[in-house]
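Teaching note: in complex prediction, the entire set of molecules is handled at once rather than each chain in isolation. The prompt given to students was simply: 'Predict the structure of this complex.' The entities are:
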Amino acid sequence: MRWEEIAGHSGVVSMLRTMLRSGQVPHAVLFAGPSGLGKMLTARVFAAGLLCTGGQGEKPCGGCAACRQITQGTHPDLLELASDGASLKIDQIRALQHEAALAPYHGFRRVVILEESERLTTQAANSLLKVLEEPPTETVFILTASSPHILLSTVVSRCRVLSFRPLTPKVLTEFLAAKGWGASEATVAARLSGGRVGKALALLAPEGLALRDRAATIVAALTAGGPEIAWEAPAALDKLEAKDLAECLSHISLILRDLFVLLSGQEELLLNPDLSDRLRPMTAEWDEERLCRAIAAVAETQRALGTNANTRLACEAMFIKLLEAAKEGY
Amino acid sequence: MKISCQKDQLHHAVQTVQKAIATKTPLPILTGIYLNAQGGKLELQATDYEVGISCTIDSNVEEAGTVVMSGRFFQEVVRRLPGDTIHIASSQEDRTIQITCGSSQFNLLSLPAEEFPVLKPISSDNTLTVKDDLLRELIKKTVFACAADEARPIFTGGLLEVEGPEIRMVATNTHRLALRQQPLLSAASNVKMIIPAKILHELARLLVAEDPQEVTLAWQKNQVGIQYDDVYINSRLIEGQFPDYRKVIPPSYSTAVTIQAEDFLDAVERVSLLARDGEYNVVKFNFKQDHVLISSNNPDVGKACETVASRMDGNELEIAFNAKYITDILKNIAADELVFSLNTSLSPASIKPVNDENYTYIITPVRTG
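The expected output is the structure of the full assembly:
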């Protein structure tokens, strides 16, 4: 557990380090920003800094008993609450209140991390409010939220809000390269992840690019294959989990965008540079206006699936529009 | 580790520590019981980070060592083993612990012993030694009055207070308050600490030895350690300032009613049968010169009333209480006669055993009509 393990976020990190150095720590902080940016890692390092018992130097030291316990997830004064199923429930907050009433185990401080705090049910959030309003002495709350606007404003207003922003592809590529990934893989992951470390690491995992490759096959089939794709592809996509389907659609959209980029001759902007050899021949089949229509069709489907649309029907409608765009006059 | 010990002793030790085994925890190691064999002794420990209990028994240690194994299964296994002598041996190769007794044999998987947070007895000059029956009396007479609701955590524990020559325990849920005090035989430093009700219940359950014994309490800022016989209990304290309970106790009363405790309890329990559905379990008490009329009225169910003989000194009065708060004290009062002292129908009342100034119970009335 060291500050050096965190990629980017230099502003937030330096603010937290200043808090630790000066000893002026707010009783509640809210880490806001999209998922996969390293909010939980930062929260754990900050918690380690607050609980670290190692000497005079920069905290966390990474070597003392407290730091080791935090790395192993066994520190008795660090409570991590994550959602139980789809939400953070009131029983979990009650258990937290019980714990918070007791003196810290090691006696000097306690840290509570609430992961994805926007998942608090209204009752749980209101219950938490009571502890946040009258925090037990020497207790620091760290809330993380990818959609802080969903949180009760009464909760947000009791926290110091620190915003996490996506990393630039350059910072992320360097971080991944430092972790031992090859330059080309790191570049693809960094660009496709939208600046999210967690996402980039997921893309680099074995099979991490499977959905992207599937999307590439679908895009290729639009121009190369026959009209049967409009029925076959939705049937296959319908079997995916909602999360994977959303990701697959977003890859289709990004690949169409990359075709657009290639058409306008700006290869350095490619998000999928490793696919450039496959994509380049396809550009002959497309023009910019039709690509725009195709991208719009995907966006419309993404919106529909975000509400309550029937997956299969929405995908079929999308493919009909995509085929119309891909094969002029079809 | 390789040991053998008496089954009933091991069973006693497992029963003692089992309340501290964590049930809901993200840390698997806390669901285990820790065994430490050394120099003719076997120590068992369990902790859920809130309370830790250790119990040491005699054993025949062939090979010293430490192991941790699933608390739930170890407890069940020990309870049901046949025979008298239990042999426990650990194997490093397959990380199992072999338990044999008579012709029965169990091999339990072990948990990594080095991860177990071993209890460290509190080394502090703040200590207090009391007789076990005194401590049990303090707890039993008060702990029932604690709040169950975590919303006000300070009231989910009992206040243990040593002040001059007296030791006191106070518990309240803001609607009722129980206070028990006893003179201390030996001098001790003044202290105030709030011990979680869960640990007090557990302590009262464990302090049941037939022979009187000494209990030593040692404390520091955030925790208290309780040592008696072969058992050591370590508990975290509830943080915060306990409100000044003395302000709650009325200095004087205008009416005092003396009643037979047992008759009164039976009558209140009967009458409250019809009140139980109501929100506050309200039972009315009409104190007359020579009797109390106890009544309840539940519009959906019906009415009940009963009279109990009493002696009154003061004015007649009608007042309503939550019946549970009355029956709770009557079950714990352990006296033949009690004095019910009142002022008005909206001010706090007190229930005390006759001729016992050391036990006070204050109850607030319910406003009716």
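Point out the following to students. Helices of chain B lie at 7-17, 71-80, 132-140, 197-206, 261-272, 323-332. The interface with chain A takes residues 24, 26-27, 29, 49-50, 115, 117, 150-151, 153-154, 156, 196, 220-223, 236-240 of chain B (CB under 8 Å).
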